[in-house]
Predict the 3D structure of the following.
Amino acid sequence: APLTDTVPPQVVPGADSSSRQLCFAWGPAEVLVCETLFGRADEGEAGAAARALTDSVAGTEDRAPSSSRVFVVRRDQDIYIQTLRKLFNESHGIFMGLQRSEEELAGKSRKAQLVQVSKNYRSVIRACMEDMHQAAVSTRDPALQSQYSTQVSILSAMELIWNLCEILFVEAATAGPLLLRLLDWVRLHVCDVDSMVREVLSSESPSKHKLFWNVVDVFVLQGRMEEAQHLLSKEASANPTSMNMYKILDDLMKKMPVPSLSNTQTLTELELKWQHWHEECQRYLQDGTFASNPHMESICKILLGDEDAILEKKELMTTWYHFLVTRLLYSHPTVKPMELRFYAQSSMDLFLGGESSPEPLDMILMAAFEFEMHQVIKECSIVLSNWWFVAHLTDLLDHCKLLQSHNLYFGSNMREFLLLEYASGLFSHHSLWQLGVDYFDHCPEYGRVYLELHIERIPLSTEQKALKVLRICEQRQMHEQVRSICKIMAMKALRNNRLGSALSWSIRAKDAAFATLISDRFLKDYCERGCFSDLDLIDNLGPSMLLSDRLTFLGKYREFHRLYGEKRFPEAARLLLTLMTAHIAPCSFWMTLLTDALPLLEQKEVIFSAEQTYELMRCLEDLTAGNPDKQKFQDDDIETTKVEMLRLALARNLARVIVKEGTVEGS
Amino acid sequence: QVSVINTVDTSHEDMIHDAQMDYYGTRLATCSSDRSVKIFDVRNGGQILIADLRGHEGPVWQVAWAHPMYGNILASCSYDRKVIIWKEENGTWEKTYEYTGHDSSVNSVCWAPHDYGLILACGSSDGAISLLSYTGDGQWEVKKISNAHTIGCNAVSWAPAVVPGSLIEQPSGQKPNYIKRFASGGCDNLVKIWKEEEGQWKEEQKLEAHSDWVRDVAWAPSIGLPTSTIASCSQDGRVFIWTCDDASGNSWSPKLLHKFNDVVWHVSWSITANILAVSGGDNKVTLWKESVDGLWACISDVNKGQGGVSAVTEGQQNEQ
């Protein structure tokens, strides 16, 4: 199948496409866009001339400042919004809990567990909404306020959708409870009328308030019978003439059969009762019982599920899905899940009435009512600015075993695809990337490789951060990344002249070449300054000394100094000699070593044996004779003097030791 | 939803030909017809000019950052036939090596995967591809593939490093036996794949599908699948996606991504290889993501900017 495009227009403000082309480059998190003009001057003389001509004709005005700008563009800005931080952090906790949750629970308890997870997610969304709302009211910057308010509506929409998905998919409410859940859902989300309700209820004489009947209607539309009855009783006491009508209406409302959550009656029983009650309402209406009070008559019609009557109260319902639920309540309370789609479609059509067209949110909800889970996810992906919502929701639905595996390009399923996208987005953030690691861990097919690719791009701005990243890599046996990071840190340390740090990083990276380089630097430093830096490190190299010959030499050489310092001269002497004879020391260092031997040669006590002295002499001769380019030995006065001193010291030592060894003890 | 998080005013005095972020997204390198290469620190939405590198005598076509384990190293190539490698030493950027072995404009430079060492491939209008390898102590060794493409080579792109066969960790100190490969695109309308055998570079594959000069090639990063993928774009307005299913690299098959109405100049893969960006002569950059069943939708919404805006638009329907 041909590759299909999937990305709608994304516009980069400020760039001018009329005269320029766009140059594009991927950054690790951001992308770069800049204006350019493709075309090479290398297309022969004609090409070069042509370009030169264009450039000069264009003139300096056309080569406006805009052409020298590079735009750094980021796709997902949400992760940088401080108030959403809670959303990302807490949902991460819920996500992890879900992944680890015991699947041994079956049936009802598993379902209850999953519903709880869903509720947890929703409460995090609501908490965030609350924070965002607080931020909106407390800021004085209108731009920020507008941004926060937008965020609040987005979060609200997310919660709305999630809640519906919870009812339909996670809980999979059946006929009966389904209606009750939908009623709860509507009550929770249609808040536009709340202030009006509060106003009326808190007034001194509610029944005299001009919005009194609106509030009664709201209660009826939302199925809040008791509250409606309560208000009506106030009206009845204030208006005795309507007492009769009131009593009947009140009675009807009290008797209205509704589904219950407990299994006290079957659906069939409910339907029968309901039919009966419906007929009773019908009789009262037709008898003209409420004829003198249009408000009450309208309520009765609503109770009868009269679409027109309900539709008249459009402004009080504000949305087509409220209308849907009200319709269902009063015409088909035992609606089955699979029947929802028909009612939903007609409700939307009736409510919008051709005046307005459905918005993206409407389409998403419609897809949910139609039980088209994939469609819901797809639409949400398009509309929402980051992957958070679809990734977590899909993961939950997957745990409910509701998603068939749709193989994508990578061969992985939808859940994994979304999680990969979401987690990838987290990696561009300086601290949220750590959450991303966990998400990748739970993507069985590509999580690991995505983690490998992303974790290498985390700027290792501090040693602490580098260690954190390393720990993560080591825990997952990501050896290549460990090595790479250690090498980078070693290079950084070296550039900043922190030799000790550079050395320990290269040891950790098992980078022999680098270790050699750094050891050379240490030795060079020693030669120049006469002392070692980072003694602790060198003294405690242990087996890692063997990583490179030069490093071994460094370690052993330092050991020599230590022995000397502890006045363990014979051992020091032996070590010194071994360093040369076993060729552990590089030739370039031999002169230094021999010079180090001088104090040992000039001790009161004879330290080097005859054998050793001969060895030393041989070393010295090898050194001075062998190298044609060491002409400087002859030219350089200091070098010559040194050699002379050594020869003298060696000779003297030899003399003394021959005597000593030749002397029989005690004689 | 895209948002511009930073607008770097490079103050280049002429057309910018390339802009590249470093490995971590902390630095930006740009090069221009004004013959300079500039480096900016762009952390936290800032833009601090770190270096203004002069050394080229003609428009500079491309820049490429080396892997940070080698230090801060940047390569640039230019119409002046030179490839210059710049290095940051003691806080300042300096030229560390200059290669003048090409007879014509050098159009493209690309660093090899860090696992191979510090190796730079360069493609030139003289038809040759040169490979510069750092051997230590400031020394570079050069290998040249003459006549890689007749008339000229426009682009080079390395294959990701994959150890053939085993993925078990090698004992430390022992270098794994990598098979080094890279792709090149040229004025002979061909995409070629080169493989190193016994220290010599040989042409392994010739991929024919374009009817005009190949302007860019991009080898997709590896996500662990046994398949290899290369994107190529051409003067003929076509973008092909080449895939090879077997590890031996023998059978490559092209899929037409799209035929554009104008020359397509650049293709590049995102770091996890799930999106391909295509820059064309039609003043747009299009982003492509392979999907099955059209199931996946997209990344975001249209975002309207003010004043002069440039659309980074969706591609049109495929033409076969």
